[in-house]
Amino acid sequence: MTTSSSTALARDLKSGALSLAIAEIAEEAARLILPYWRAGTAVETKSDDSPVTQADRAAEALILERLAALYPGVQTVAEEAVSANGAPASAEDWFWLIDPLDGTRGFVRGGEAFTVNIALIHGDHPVAGVVTAPATATTWRTDKPEGGAFRRQFGALQAGEAHAGEDWRPIRVRDRPQEGMALLSHSVTDEEATRLAARHGCSRWQGTDSSLKFCLIAEGRFDAYPRTGPTSEWDTAAGQAVLEAAGGRVLADDGQRLSYGKAKFLNGAFVAMGG
Ligand SMILES: Nc1ncnc2c1ncn2[C@@H]1O[C@H](COP(=O)(O)O)[C@@H](OP(=O)(O)O)[C@H]1O
Ligand SMILES: [Mg+2]
To answer: Residue of the nearest CA to atom 9 in ligand 1?
Structure first.
């Protein structure tokens, strides 16, 4: 990476300009994805058995092009590129993690819980992240873990109306209520979900696709999201950034903060928690 890009990243992180710019990119990707939603889009199956559509590919190409124009030469680790060409052998000091369409299974079923995810990693942890839910035109962002997390409805979805939505509003995790409420992936059985929720002090749970789970905890609507099965780092990085900035935590099995740049960019078990 060029020295000017690392200087620009550090400067824009500090000012808050970085996550604002990344939010615009994620919202542009959302507008690209929406015409494919509930439109009978053809679904292919990747070698790992997971689904992919034209929407995933088009959104990833757009995001990579916009990031390269803003900050040339920064390493990118993006779901569809890794699926096509393999993962980079190692992570650089600064790198982007991109999941252009997380929750593709739900997207294909016509559900609302699918997201665009862009995160910036520095060292071993996310320092900025944006999650956008195209179906509800909602974006969550942060670029200063100590400076808070924010959410906005980005309003009309027609091209050129990117700024027509609400202002950014701060969000915060809630204090744990008497009866905690967990979020679980639809990939676990009801029995497993009940057991995992109870293990994290939650007597009730709800199944939800995608990284939206991190954002719902960050907004104070749920309390925990335990996951035992594998995920890729681009599935969790942006959501973790938002949740941590809103006062929550994401811990790996060893009790440490979930870290990034691991072998094959794969996560093991973790739990995301609110207050
Ligand atoms: N064995 C595995 N290895 C890596 N990631 C996996 C995985 N099984 C599921 N995932 C990831 O989990 C995401 C779905 O999470 P959830 O079940 O919480 O919605 C999928 O994201 P995509 O939809 O982007 O492919 C997929 O990448
Ligand atoms: Mg994903």
So the answer is: 231
